[in-house]
Description:
The chain is of the alpha+beta class. It contains two helices and five strands, in the order βααββββ. It has a five-stranded mixed sheet with strand order 1-5-4-3-2. It is globular, with a radius of gyration of 12 Å.
Amino acid sequence: MTKRTVVWVASAERELGEIWFACGRSPKINKASHQIDRDLRDDAILHSDPLAEGLRVIERTPLRAVVELNEADMLVRVLSLSVVRM
């Protein structure tokens, strides 16, 4: 299986930092963000759900990420991040 490249856009990285600080630097946030990275890299289609044309969503408690897949380039861009539950 070919692995994809996962890139977080600057606004998603800022959201991650803001969430991390707001949640008291919780290890749950670190674990979830790393799991999102791994799952998207390994098989973005299997580990995410369709959201809209060209967009998918992946949830790893307590985070939800909206991503864009470019199959031709094997690239996944994390566009936004939010907290779904703690």
